[in-house]
Design goal:
The chain is mainly beta and 354 residues long. Helix content is 12%, strand content 45%. It has helices at 2-13, 37-41, 241-247, 259-263, 286-291, 340-343, 348-352; strands spanning 71-78, 84-94, 99-109, 113-116, 122-126, 129-141, 145-158, 161-176, 181-195, 208-216, 222-228, 266-274, 278-285, 304-311, 316-325, 328-338. The strands form 2 sheets. It has a 14-stranded antiparallel beta barrel with strand order 1-2-3-6-7-8-9-10-11-12-13-14-15-16. Strands 4-5 form a two-stranded antiparallel ribbon. The longest helix has 12 residues, at 2-13. The two termini are 25 Å apart.
Length: 354
Amino acid sequence: MRAVVCLIFLLCSTAQLPAQTLGGQSAYNFLKFPASPQVSALGGINVSNVSNDLSLAFSNPAQLDSAMHTQMVANFNALYAGVKNLHWMMAFRNAKLQTNFAAGILYFDYGTTMQTDASGNIEGTYRPRDFVVQLMASREYLNRWKYGVSLKFLASNYGPYRSSAIAADVGVLYRDTANFLQTSVVAVNMGGQLKRYNPAEPEELPFDLQVGISKRLAKAPIRFSLTAHHLHRFNIMYNDTLFNNENGFENASAKKFTFDKLFQHFVFSTQILIGGRVEVTAGFNVLRNQELKVTTGGNGLTGFSLGAGVLFSKLQLRYARTYFQNNVAYNQLGLTMPLNQYFGLGSWGEKVGW
């Protein structure tokens, strides 16, 4: 219980951290990208949904579960302008340590770009890339609590500009199976740079404090989720702390309470479970809807996301479609394979004699 209390204290204390950049000069913003099709379908942020899907642990290490032992996840995304995204994860449970482990990588390839000097003269080409390597572990306390930690190495390569950083995520999860209820709190991207793009200009990581609750109806196969993000700051529409500090502007712009500012923290989602084999998911991200709406036209499906999953014993196949504007959306495809169904693997501790 002492470990759980310490983790809760750590998460709560992050709310007192100095102001973080929202937009603008925050580095490594690719970390905000929902690597999992299921998370994308749930609105882009979700830390409490109940699912035997290892890729959920990318967003919240407390969601790494013993049932995910030997799961391998591969997610593929073809984004606009030739941008490619790959996400891979693998999980093991150590029986002797009673601990779940996982490792993964999220990789972005932005294609080939021309490199020019200040006058526009072409000096060649380069291939910008971003990636994060992630190691995580989780444990259970009693029958209802779980806590997890994720350590991440981040790297960006934009031709002559390169940077790296170390970050950590910490999460605590509570599950009440009798009432079909699950809640979680997680602090993500706590850390700092090892190497800066420009040695004279430090940059912040996209820190976020998130809380989520998921509830399934007792007499219907429907689950609802509510996720709140950026709880360490009230006004989150756009705030570049580095720019404001350098130019003498005030950072605390949220002097007046408005319901718009309140609801921009929320992501709503629902999931219908059909026969234990099919998932149908829909989500709505309020902040995305507000930031990307076009004032000269209708908002349409901006901020909405949809998804579906087909779950078999040896394969889970998931698909998501996320809308950024009326005619602008991207698709994600993900595969989950429990390798012990193919190779008869035992627990990791049993396999290597720990």
